[in-house]
Design a protein that fits this description.
single chain; about 0% strand
Length: about 80
């Protein structure tokens, strides 16, 4: 909410949410939300996974933006 509402960084908010969702979907948990209280990761380990996923999402977004820009530039160039 801070990123999206207070700071107006909606793209970044979506990337953080996607990273958290992806990590949670992989069934890793900290002890406080672990079902069996036996198989869990530390908060630092979970944070590292989320940050790695966030960086991956950011790379994908950056590559997608580059491809879109490149495509627009090529279309502009070919219309001359």
């Amino acid at each position: 909410m801070l990123l999206g509402i207070s700071l107006g960084l909606d793209k970044e908010r979506r990337a953080v949410e996607a990273a958290v969702e992806a990590v949670l979907e992989s069934s890793v948990r900290t002890i406080d939300i672990s079902e069996d209280k036996k198989n869990y990761l530390s908060t630092k380990e979970i944070t590292d996974l989320i940050l790695a996923r966030y960086k991956l999402v950011q790379c994908i977004v950056d590559i997608s933006a580059f491809i879109t820009t490149w495509s627009i530039d090529c279309n502009t160039y070919s219309q001359r």
